[in-house]
Design goal:
- The complex is a heterodimer of chains A (259) and B (406).
- With 259 residues, chain A is an alpha+beta fold.
- Chain A has 2 domains: 1-42, no CATH class; 63-257, Alpha-Beta Plaits (2-Layer Sandwich), CATH 3.30.70.
- Chain A has 8 helices and 12 strands.
- Chain A has a 4-stranded mixed beta sheet with strand order 10-3-12-11.
- Chain A starts with a strand and ends with a strand.
- Chain B has a two-stranded antiparallel ribbon with strand order 1-3.
- Mean pLDDT of chain B is 90; it is low at 400-406.
- By secondary structure, chain B is mostly helical.
- The chains are: A alpha+beta (259), B mainly alpha (406).
- The structure holds iron/sulfur cluster (2 copies).
- The site of one iron/sulfur cluster has 16 residues of chain A, from helix 5.
Chain lengths: 259, 406
Amino acid sequence: MSIKTEKSTPTPGFDPVRRKFLSAVAAAAGVALAPGVMLYGITKSNSAAARVSGSAVSSNVRWGMLIDLNRCDSGCDDCVTACSKENGLQGHGRPATDAQWIRKVDVTNPQTGASQSLPMMCQHCADPPCVDVCPTGASFKRADGIVLVNKHTCIGCRYCMMACPYKARSFIHESLEDQKPHAPRGKGTVESCTLCVHRVDAGGQPACVEACSDTGGGAMLFGDLKDPDSEISQRVAKYATQQIRADLGLDPGVRYRNL
Amino acid sequence: MKRIIYSEIKGRSPQFYALAAILLVFVLTALASAFYMEHSGHYVTGMNNQVVWGMPHVFAIFLIVAASGALNVASIGTVFGKTIYKPLGRLSGLLAIALLLGGLVVLVLDLGRPDRLIVAMTNYNLKSIFTWNIFLYVGFMVIVAAYLWLQMERRMNRFAKSAGMLAFLWRLILTTGTGSIFGFLVAREAYDSAIMAPLFIAMSFSFGLAVYILVLLAACRGSERDIGDKVVNKLGRLLGIFAALVLYFTAIQHLTNLYAAEHIGVEKFILLDGGIYTLLFWVGQVIVGGIIPMVLVFRASGDVSRNAILASTLVIIGGFAQVYVIVIGGQAYPLELFPGMEVSSSFNDGVIASYAPSLPEIGLGLGGVALTGLITLFGMKLLRFLPASLANATIDPHHSVTAKSS
Ligand code: SF4
Ligand code: SF4
């Protein structure tokens, strides 16, 4: 379905000032584009609804994840399945161009032969290079640390994909059907794991984490890294944890244990 | 030195119209290709989630890099005061604008959402080097256009030198900006190096001059103007020096990378066992695009123009190979998520990505080249870009004297 720019609502979770600014710009762009130019296929319903009901995004929070590799089995991909279902990602049987927000990576030490398996997704970097390079500001980081793409301003230049060290982003290579109202997507734009922002803003946790504890190994823990009393903070304080490619200094919000 | 007389090309011959028609067909093909890619989605191209920038970027980057280099001829004339280059300046400005437009159109049409160009024009992220490049490109066109106008409008001639100086500085920054698009990608082993900016400047000198020589010779022949060996020889030798410069910076690029342990993998890939990329590097860039042109302009005997044409063509071919290796080869090599470990996944982690350019991508790229050609062609028809004669005697007052005494 098509919607006009000036009516469009930003992706969930803008802070108010930014939202105001962007909608002003979007309105201006809408006027400039009118008449007849439609920006297509993005939302079905008011995608900001979740945020309106929640409290403002606060920088006192930093959402993150801790993944315990000892509990993550190589054969299990419940997190991946849950993500696809939650966000309506269905493949076209073309693995090279199909979107993958989360994937299982097997890591083997060539010297010892020891092997581990881990889920890999957008690491929600504190210093995200994808945001730095994005020419239009479509890639942005919320105050609570969640990195998102604004589907209305992404021009599909793919520079963020070049810049992301974790290969966390996918470009939408073909038309989409059956989109989920809470996870707007659009052909010709780039997307990645949203940390299930719609659930988080409603007080829940990401679908992958839920699936992992329900049917998987219970390897994933979601929480607020800034709250010293949260379980994730306490575990991060207690045990040795790793960030992948910590040498790049991006401070990912996804931490791994027993890597 | 005599006053230089410039004139329009007539552009009434059947050949002129035939050429224009061919170029137009290419431009239309490019538009159709872009529409097809946009309509079906990029899965119809060779690009994928591993190689996100494909053939259109190779063309676009080549054209944009060449654009700033094409302006060098004008700069040498105005900024460095070399008289023999003065009559060549106007064409160099025209070509610079035409190349830049050709490249930018390809770049825009390859976007996932080219229809959102207006968004790109109204929303800036000033931290992005990409944004800066947009400003640099627009500024470049404005400055070069102003410079051309100041040159053509006799009353304004006295300002031309300052404008030329500004254009020269601007072009250096512009190419630095283009090179930095790659240099800033910390995660990509192939690109993460400060040498990218000077390397791109050297490339621009070389590619831009090669394109310039070809266009100049073709335009002079097509419009039956004299062009003496003296000019051609000068330009040819300059091209040889620039080609050497590119080789020099390429050597530094790879040598410094070999010193950094984390870059060894990608270096081995490009230089030794990268298949098509290794081939394109050694045969395409180094031999065809570097060594042979140098031999042609410095050592070969025979027809000067013929050698210059051949050398320029080879530099352009080698240049494409070089940009291809940088853009595609750099992406084909997998990201190192866990240095020293072996990785595998459903998302092609740890494997060399495959990429084969599709027809629409090539069609789009060639359309950019054709657009450059059309702009240049009609530019020369509408305005006085080309000197009426570049014969040895016209460009160099001492020529006949020295000729007699020798
Ligand atoms: S993991 Fe990649 S996409 Fe996610 S925030 Fe970091 S750089 Fe951006
Ligand atoms: S593809 Fe979209 S989100 Fe990524 S850098 Fe370009 S405009 Fe920004």
